[in-house]
Amino acid sequence: MKRSHANFLTQCLVLTRRSFVNMYCNLGYYWLQLGIYVIIALYLGTIYYNVGSSYASIQARGAMLMFCASFLTFMAIGGFPSFVEDTKVFERERLNGRYGSGAFAIGNTLSSTPYLLLISLIPGSITYFLTGLQRGIHLLCFGVFRLYDVG
Length: 151
What we know:
It is built from 6 helices and no strands. It is mostly helical. The chain has one domain (8-150).
């Protein structure tokens, strides 16, 4: 097995940068998903417009939140074809001794984090404010981080 010339940290940084540029340039990776999520957020916001936070609106709030969580889970498969392409490149480069699995996993995780936060923040904020769930920025942050966790 060949030994790579770069250390682990350099491998992670190079793979993070390469993956980040690939995700930025490839429309199907995250940008198309972001567009679909914004449209769905606008639809949900208008359907459940100002649903409120009273005791009588518990069922409507629960239905809206469950739809968001299930739709995010369902749409997570949208980036899978691009990930398969990356995995094919990874397999070829790993067999050539360029880098290992750990550097690839860390690089992919670090490069996808900003895009996943963006995908959680923009549609989550649209839906949160249009439906009028609760007042308070701390509750919005909690909801966005929950969406980030689901997505």
